[in-house]
Specification:
Elements lengths: L1 H10 L22 H5 L28 H5 L6 E7 L4 H5 L2 H19 L7 E4 L4 H7 L3 H13 L2 E2 L4 E3 L12 H7 L3 E3 L9 E9 L3 H12 L4 E9 L7
Parallel strand pairs: 1-7, 2-3, 2-6, 6-7
Antiparallel strand pairs: 4-5
Helix pairs in contact: 5-7
Amino acid sequence: MRVLDRLADLVWPRVCAVEGCSRASDRAGRHLCSRCFATLPFHEAGSACSVCGTPIAATVHHAFVCETCQEKPPHYACARSALLYEGPVGPLVHRATWLCEDLVDLLEGAVRAKFAFPEIDVVVPVPLHPNRLRERGYNQSALLAQALAQRLNRRFDDASLIRTLDTEHQARLSGDARQNNLRNAFSVVRPPWVRGRTVLLVDDVMTTGTTLSQCAAPLVKAGAARVWCATLARAVRRSDA
C-alpha cells in the first residue's frame, strides 16, 4: 500500500492540510507534512490526573487524582488524548472524513503509549442519535474508532452502545447542565457483546469528559470489566496538584 501511495503522490501531490502550510506532504499516503505533524500540540504523558488525564501545572511523582474526579468520579477508569485542542488542531479534527488516516496515526500512537493496549477487547465509538446521524451523514467518532480497531486488530462494535435521546449540543452548555443534558441519553442494547470486556471508548474531542462518562455508565452497568477512553484531542483544562 505504501508503494501505491508513493506513486499516487508523484502523480497527484498532496499539499499539507495544516492551515498556512503550503508544502507538499512528504509522508506517503498522508495529508500532513512531517514538520507540521511533529509540531502538533501533543498531550504529553507528563504530570496529569491519573483518571481523566487533565494536565497538572505542578510536577508530581505519584498517582494523582484531580479535584473534579475526586468530587464526581467518572464512570470510566481512565481517559487519555493524543493532542491538545489548540492551534491547528480544531480545523484538522473536523476534517476526519478525508484526514482519517493522519488522525488515526495520532490516535493509535496515543493508545499504544498510554494504555496497556493488548488488554483491549473491543473498540466502541461514542454514538450519534439517528436524527443527528441523518443530518451529518456520518459519525466522525465511528470513522476514527473503526480505523483504530483495524490498526489494533480488535473488534469494532458500533451496535451495542446507542444514543436514545436527541439532546441539545453539549457545546452550548456548561457545568451541571452538561450532566443533566446527557443523563440516560445512552443505552447498551447488546450486553453480551461487552460483558466482561475491556472496552475502549473513542470520541473525537474531550471537553469536560461528561459525554464519555455518560457513555461509560451503561457499559459498566451492562457488565464491561472496565472502560477506557481515547480521544483525538482534549480541551485544555489545567488542574493544580
